[in-house]
Design brief:
single chain, alpha/beta, Rossmann fold, Zinc Finger, Delta Prime, domain 3, 2 domains, about 55% helix, binds zinc ion
């Protein structure tokens, strides 16, 4: 099994790079764009390992000294640019670590590779400082910008880079990955996958995080006992959420998923179409006892609540209103 097979999705991107390597048609600068968790870093690590592998194939051998150094993060010709200020990558960062360094020939590798992660943090000055290097890189030089999207770059930079976009991965693939590689049970995988929307990093984080399971269980419990639940019970749980790595927005997203399930089940009566498949009885009950109009009202209310919280409207007021709408419909 090739190491590239372990990457979920992105087949076309991998194919492109393998082709470019095989035919010696690599560009000197790339922007690899994709949202957080889309797999940019994993792909990049594997790509640079391949480029530096002593066997010079289209995939890394995994055994040579170069591959071992690449895995250990100690390859002298694979450089991740660091920055002093957490929120920005400044001109002095790139001058010291890249512009002033790239003229020195590779220590042991075929290439000298620079990776700028979170490249959206590059200040315009830093981008300008890079221009000349990108225009006339040495034969062995490769610069990889990893960014959430390419809109942050100056046109002078984008016009000199090849842009590679990582698209969200299909839900089926993410689920398969979670179940096979991360040993996540099916019912849990469904919820994580729907929640992560093609972002494998996020799906994996969710699957591995206890608090996500807690939130999920809480949503299910409340939804099953809505008529007998006091508002205070919900609020005390939400207060506790503030301490964990998930927040009220995640909670609302899960509620949205629940009511969309109710809607889908009401329309289709098909348990295979819903996300909370394990809870199909509760979904069916709600679907039977509510009107389409009522369910839509709730869904709109949850979306409105998200917007209100974003606009800093008092959390308790927002939640109470939403909770009432849920009970009344
Ligand atoms: Zn190797």
């Amino acid at each position: 099994m090739s190491e590239f097979d372990r990457i979920v999705g992105h087949e076309k991107v991998i194919q492109y790079f393998q082709n470019a390597i095989a035919h010696n048609k690599l560009a000197h600068s790339y922007i690899i764009a994709g949202e957080k968790g889309s797999g940019k870093k994993m792909l990049t690590r594997l790509l640079v390992k391949t480029l530096q592998c002593e066997k010079e194939g289209i995939e890394p051998c995994g055994e040579c000294r170069s591959c071992i150094q690449a895995d250990a993060g100690s390859h002298p010709d694979i450089k991740w640019i660091e920055h002093e200020k957490p929120a920005t990558i400044g001109a002095s960062d790139v001058r010291e670590q890249l512009v002033g360094d790239i003229c020195i020939k590779p220590y042991s590798g075929k290439y000298k590779i620079y990776i700028i992660d979170e490249a959206e943090k590059l200040t315009p000055q830093a981008q300008n400082a890079l221009l000349k290097t990108i225009e006339e890189p040495p034969e062995y030089g490769i610069i990889l910008f990893l960014a959430t999207n390419s809109s942050f770059f100056l046109p002078t930079i984008t016009s000199r880079c090849l842009e590679i976009n990582l698209h969200p991965i299909s839900d089926g693939l993410v689920k398969q990955y979670l179940m096979e590689q991360a040993k996540v049970p099916s019912y849990m995988a469904d919820v994580c996958v729907a929640f992560a929307q093609g972002n494998i990093g996020k799906a994996l984080l969710l699957a591995k995080t206890e608090s996500f399971e807690q939130i999920r269980n809480h949503v299910i419990r409340i939804m099953k006992n809505l008529d007998n639940t006091e508002f205070a019970t919900i609020m005390s749980f939400i207060k506790a959420l503030d301490e964990s790595e998930f927040d009220i927005n995640d909670y609302l997203d899960l509620l949205l998923m629940w009511y969309r399930d109710v809607l889908i089940y009401k329309a289709s009566k098909d348990r295979n179409k819903v996300i909370f498949r394990e809870e199909v009885e509760a979904l069916a009950y709600k679907a039977e006892t509510s009107t389409y109009e009522g369910i839509n009202k709730i869904i709109m209310m949850i979306e409105q609540s998200k917007a209100r919280l974003k606009a800093n409207v008092n959390e308790e007021v927002v939640m109470e209103l939403m909770f009432l709408t849920m009970k009344e419909n």
